[in-house]
Amino acid sequence: MSQTGAMAPVEGGxxxxxxxxxxxxxxxxxxxxxxxxxxxxxSMTRDLDDAANASADVVVDLCGASFMDSSSLYALMxxxxxxxxxxRSLAVACWSEGPVALTIHVSGADELFALYPTRTDAVxxxxxxx
Length: 130
What we know:
Elements: E1 18-24, E2 27-36, H1 41-53, E3 58-68, H2 70-85, E4 90-93, H3 99-107, E5 114-116, H4 119-128
Parallel strand pairs: 2-3, 3-4, 4-5
Antiparallel strand pairs: 1-2
Helix pairs in contact: 1-2
């Protein structure tokens, strides 16, 4: 259920949660905003599934995410595996001092993901083949 532009809060969930989808320099970019928790992860997972089935490399921009729990981290790990099986790349944009980066680093998953401080940096890395 990909959305473009602003999206109403998930029913009963965190306000401001949205996933916007766009193409940038041939890379599929998912821009995720709001809290990523057990309530919002199922919605995000539908977008991640669509991304895994698309034909482009993928950037997940989490710079606008205010929180990420283990269920969301697991969903990203599944996306990474599915893309790798299709010889496609994944890059994750998140602020190095933000709550999402903290979750990724504390879990040790930072060794699994190509992390970039901005969406632009992540897209550029994938277009260069980094």
